[in-house]
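P.,

For your records, the input lines for the assembly:
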Amino acid sequence: MEPGFGVSIPRLYAYHRALREASAAGKGTITSHGLATLLGETIAPTQIRKDLCALGARGRRGHGYAIKPLSAHLAWVLGLEHDWRVAIAGFGYLGHAFATFLAARERRFDVVAIFDRSPQVIGQEWQGVRVDDIADATRVLRAAACEIAVVAVPAEAAQGVAETLAGAGVRAILNFAPSTLRVHREDGMPVVVRNIDLAGELSILTHRLAVGTMPAVEEA
Amino acid sequence: MEPGFGVSIPRLYAYHRALREASAAGKGTITSHGLATLLGETIAPTQIRKDLCALGARGRRGHGYAIKPLSAHLAWVLGLEHDWRVAIAGFGYLGHAFATFLAARERRFDVVAIFDRSPQVIGQEWQGVRVDDIADATRVLRAAACEIAVVAVPAEAAQGVAETLAGAGVRAILNFAPSTLRVHREDGMPVVVRNIDLAGELSILTHRLAVGTMPAVEEA
DNA sequence: AAATGTGAAGAGGTTCACAGCG
DNA sequence: CGCTGTGAACCTCTTCACATTT
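Structure tokens returned:
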């Protein structure tokens, strides 16, 4: 899929979370082993050191890593430093819930545009943001200058909506529709797409429950 | 993380989706290459054949795979055949939206129990289901016999809630809280935990946007 | 001829073992 | 002595090449 440069972003994000925890607990320094403990031993200390080393972080041998600069560096790598303008496409229960989530928990994301197709929803206001017709997305987004969009529309509409968004300057899409988006931009810049398939996630669970009833299937 | 048996469940789920699509289009048979096309060329035909072969599916050489039996087999492997009873823990905007999502789009999941901590929410009704105090979860769940639970509570509360749920017979958890859950059950059966970290997913996007502004960082 | 099934090669990421500093 | 930094071994998953079957 992706080229990959040895470190996975979810892991870095977990480190950042754990570092904030440690910092809040009054610590000024932490070892790779201490980080692993904070992460519930789900990541090996060696792995953590490899990741941090690859990022250019330097720890003091015998002591550990200084939390503050490390946390700041991770924040920079993760794009946590500056605020982002977000558009929500599809304002059903899911889009609505996501917008509320951002407003309540993730202040660095600013919902500045909302789109829907339904005449009953268009024209509504949510926290001062008007819901526009998805057909006007190009015009509205040119003015709003969003780089990130959330797609929470039915699967059939997702591809078309994604293309419209990409055409209006969006460079990253969080897609909740159960469909594989394929989006290019005219200017050649890649559109980053991240899929969250809720039904698919549930299927992973039901799979495990379904096969878990039998005593470990061995492959030939 | 997991032992892994060569095939990834998200991929199988994607196959199943594509097969339904092909079946709806009137096809009775499909080739690995045809499936790849339907999946937007995101998975190589060879990979598809390896996966299907590992599942014991047999295709006819020169023709492809018969869609109906293959789809049925995938449904069985994914646990898509029978219905599941689901409990929602945390009935804020996220828990609420997820319950609505299940009711609207995923009929095979039946929301039979809802829990919250807030007195303002406890006692409310949602589609005939009463919101109970999370403190009563053990008693309520014994009667409701849920195997799957969705955790949509604040991060600080997640671990405790997960343990309560596990103690009440829950065997699989879909966790939206940004915390690493570590859950065991008394009877030794493993609790399957699947995390969906929305803020983390967004960070993957912002990371790509942040580093994407520079011309491809090479690692030494 | 067309497409599957599969051993072998390859790539990528994780763990090990230990050298190197503080 | 403790903990980091890192090359090497290891392992898992993906891709390739091609024999095999209809």
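Two observations worth noting. Residues 60 and 195 of chain A are 39 Å apart (CA to CA). Confidence is low (pLDDT under 50) at residues 214-220 of chain A.

Regards
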